[in-house]
Design brief:
5-stranded antiparallel beta sheet; 3-stranded antiparallel beta sheet; 15 helices; elongated
Length: 518
């Protein structure tokens, strides 16, 4: 084979920097080299008439290519069945986690309850311990992660030159302008993410180019809608994770017109399945579907999974990363796309999600205030209700009256200053009424509740205790040192949040590099 002459010429590196070394054209460098002819033979396709692998561009929807092949529909059906079975196994493996998350909504105390047990009108109030800790963290973290000028900061790596500094400034100013003006959803989505992360321990951001609106977007993905392989430690090494989305028929049609999804007909969605957590949230917000509700919302599984895709097998048998989008009820695959950069021979998976973790846990999901002080909040709520019920009994006592005692209008409660006539001798009235032996609210029970509340607050945020008792610490320097020491818990959590947000902004910068004009 003749030598290549269209390769860029090589310039040797001169470490001394005295003078430039000559550039030798590639054809002159290879002029004295012997010419070697090599014959290539592709294994599996050398026989005449053997089927060739399907041709498709790197960005193409491979489900359309497979569907056009002979027996392509059955291939897609088998693939869809296997993926849904894998998702169900992943979902089943975290059933206990789902039940805990539904309990978290009740522990926040946002729901106003009217209880009939242990008696009608019993106290249904919840102690605001957990919600107070979550809201305080949300307020502090949002100001930390989303300042008024914008969250993006840049740093020059390597030798600092005026050109690099100007480029760094341009990148920072454009990212902040883009986030604060061109992406109006960024701030509200981040605010909701911080609340969810503080409560549940984990939340996710999905940063991607949305063809429907023709711009990058960054959306919150609740942990309940992000199902991960049981054996996963992080997103980079996970064999499979699934984003559960709910899309209307019009949204799906929009993506089909844009060429993202296959243009196929979907069956009408069945009755929407709602989790216990979603039902609790709807009840908390006072929402319910109308009686004439016509459901046009589809449940979509976007699965980031390693596959040995039929017709696109890797010669060494390595499973490659793909993004498979399918509709749950019909099992129809809407999209299959390669999830690695074109030309990457290592097939490194591209990640569009950012994991925000409150406190790293023992598994994939993190720990939030629900796990850290949820038990204390639950106990504080029970103690508060006992104290309130005891005060109710003490103020409005009940008891027994003798069978022969007759009181006019016995069903009407006595009003303050009212004297009611009773059909009984004056001396026998005390003997005819026997109140139950109720006690005043226990002082010990109250002190126990105060102890649990103070313990939880010290764990959640010690700075409040330092501020409230600042007069006992003496000089200002001592108080500032105590404030710095007590704020280390938040500092560590904020550092995790900054690291996650840095990854999120990096994804946004990569999207700008790929899609925006020069």
């Amino acid at each position: 084979m003749p030598p290549r002459t269209d390769i860029v010429s090589l310039e040797k590196y001169n470490p001394e920097g005295d003078e430039e070394l000559p550039i030798i054209p590639m054809e002159d460098q290879m002029a004295d080299q012997p010419v070697m002819e090599i014959e290539f033979e592709e294994e599996g396709y050398e026989e005449e008439g053997a089927p060739l692998p399907p041709s498709a561009g790197h960005e193409d929807n491979l489900s359309e290519v497979i569907a056009e092949q002979e027996d392509g529909d059955s291939t897609l059906e088998r693939l869809s069945s296997d993926l849904i079975e894998s998702f169900d196994a992943d979902k089943e493996s975290r059933e206990d986690w789902d039940s805990i998350s539904s309990e978290a909504i009740n522990l926040l105390g946002f729901k106003i309850e009217s209880k009939d047990q242990p008696f009608r009108g019993a106290c249904g109030a919840s102690h605001p311990l957990l919600s107070q800790a979550v809201v305080k963290f949300q307020a502090k973290a949002f100001r930390e992660l989303y300042p008024s000028p914008g969250p993006a900061r840049t740093r020059v790596v390597g030798a600092v030159t005026p050109q690099k500094e100007q480029q760094s400034l341009r990148v920072k100013e454009f990212l902040n302008y883009q986030i604060t003006h061109l992406m109006p959803e960024y701030g509200p989505q981040l605010d909701k993410l911080l609340f969810s992360t503080a409560l549940m321990g984990s939340s996710f951001k999905k940063t991607y180019w949305d063809v429907a609106i023709n711009r990058p977007t960054s959306r919150l993905v609740m942990a309940k809608d992000f199902v991960v392989d049981y054996y996963a430690d992080d997103l980079e090494t996970a064999e499979r994770y699934t984003h559960v989305m709910r899309m209307t028929a019009n949204e799906i049609k929009r993506y089909q017109i844009a060429g993202m999804y296959r243009d196929i007909e979907l069956v009408d969605p069945g009755e929407p399945e709602t989790s216990e957590e979603e039902e609790t949230i709807d009840e908390l917000q006072g929402k319910a579907p109308p009686s004439n509700f016509s459901n046009d919302v589809y449940t979509i599984y976007e699965m980031h999974v390693n596959l040995d895709l039929p017709g696109f097998e890797e010669p060494n048998g390595l499973m490659l990363p793909y993004i498979v989008t399918l509709e749950k009820d019909s099992g129809k695959i809407l999209c299959i796309r390669k999830n690695w950069e074109e030309g990457d021979v290592t097939y490194q998976k591209k990640i569009y999600f950012t994991h925000y973790s409150f406190v790293p846990g023992l598994g994939f999901y993190g720990y939030g205030y629900l796990h850290l002080i949820g038990g204390l909040a639950k106990t504080a709520t029970a103690t508060l209700r006992q104290l309130t019920d005891a005060g109710t009994f003490a103020n409005l006592p009940a008891g027994f009256k003798a069978h022969g005692l007759r009181v006019l209008s016995p069903d009407d409660p006595l009003q303050p200053g009212e004297w009611r006539e009773a059909n009984a001798p004056a001396g026998d009235l005390n003997k005819s009424l026997v109140p139950l032996p109720y006690k005043e609210p226990s002082r010990t029970l109250y002190e126990l509740m105060q102890f649990m509340v103070s313990t939880a607050k010290e764990f959640a945020d010690q700075t409040d205790a330092v501020v409230s008792e600042s007069s006992n610490y003496g000089p200002v320097g001592t108080t500032l040192a105590l404030l710095e020491q007590s704020g280390k818990l938040f500092s560590a959590i904020h550092q995790r949040m900054h690291t996650a947000q840095g990854h999120d902004l990096k994804l946004l910068a990569e999207l700008n590099f790929k899609y925006l004009p020069e």
